[in-house]
Amino acid sequence: MKIAQISTNTIPVPPKAYGGTQRDVYYLTEELVRRGHEVILFAKKGSKAQATETFEYPTDDPDEQLDFIMKNLPDDVDIIHDHYGIVANANPPIPTIRNSHSKGVTGVQIPVYVSKTILKRYGKNKGYYVHNGIRVNDYSFRKKKSNYLLFLGRLIEQKGVHLAIEVAKKTGKKLIIAGTLNDKKYFNSKIKPHLNKRIRYVGPVGGKTKMNLLAKASCVLFTSTWNEPFGLVLIEALASGTPVLGFKKGAVPEVLKGLPKLLCNNTKDMISKVQNRRNFPSARRCRRYVRTNFSDSIMTDNFLKLYRQIIKGEKYKIIKNSTWNKKLINNQNKELE
To answer: Is 177 helix (H, G, I), strand (E, B) or coil?
Structure first.
């Protein structure tokens, strides 16, 4: 099968630190190629996935990027998997998935979401869902843990870093905060005043540093207060053999369905569970849970199943008078001038 993967132009594939969408593109691309499929990847400059062929965007302009994709897309591609939106929104006369990693999408052939929760909440049950997956062996595994809690994610109010700080203070535990600083006002008012020897901010992390922090933590705190589309940190922590406590928001209950004791009703509940670790699953059970539910192999299985159904015409309908066709005609006319 020949598959075009369309990544964003914000972060290379794979990302060095934060970048859930680009990590999905990376794992999916690598696993598809490993299974013998051809993958044509369009991505930001500096991308290094083992695709059959990689095209780096030459410009930051989405309209010019679409022209670039149209020019370099093979004629015999079987399906387009768009994680960006610019191709799916143009509706090419080729089976095309629009993979949304966050919000609802309309006006495309086949919307696919990262969780059943988001398909229902934002997609209004129109489309499909395939869970995120990760390469479990990429994550360090440790049974013996260090005595600190970990928050990993963007430093914005919706991620609830201040609540993680509250949990650390009331349990007397050390807390390491790692992630990109996206809201300076929030950081200066709700986080910085609490930083000390026990509560530390270490900045954005990636690679071995990130893996070590995840593997050594006694527990990861997933304190997001908004409707998370998935929550990649949840499965990254578990793959490292580390329990992760999360609020019952967005897709968190869906992702932790098989480990319900890790779900928290509120901050008070989270504090209680940090203090009483007897109900935490073992490190091996945490890792096994990801391997059997959220691996890159399972994600790829599910996408391949959907690809085949679409190519057979079971879920695919050509949209006439599309932007793609109009743009193609305009480009052809320019070449004739």
So the answer is: strand
- pTM confidence score: 0.90
Query: Measured on CA atoms in the order 297, 301, 306, 310, is the torsion positive or negative?
Result: positive
H helices of the chain, where?
Answer: 20-34, 62-72, 116-121, 161-171, 184-186, 207-216, 232-239, 252-255, 267-275, 283-293, 296-311, 323-336
- Number of Cα atoms under 13 Å in the Cβ half of residue 68: 19
The encoded tokens of residue 163 equal: 């609540």
* Contact (CB, 8 A) for 215 and 241: yes
The tokens describing 118, both together, are: 């988001």
Domains and their CATH numbers in the chain: 2-134+296-336 (3.40.50.2000), 137-293 (3.40.50.2000)
What is the residue-wise DSSP string for 22-33? HHHHHHHHHHHH
233: nearest Cα among 266, 263, 211, 200: 211
Q: How do residues 22-78 score in pLDDT, each as one tens digit?
A: 989 999 999 999 999 999 999 999 999 999 999 999 999 999 999 999 999 999 999
Closest-CA residue to 285 (of 135, 143, 133): 143
Using DSSP's 3-state secondary structure scheme, residue 102 falls into coil
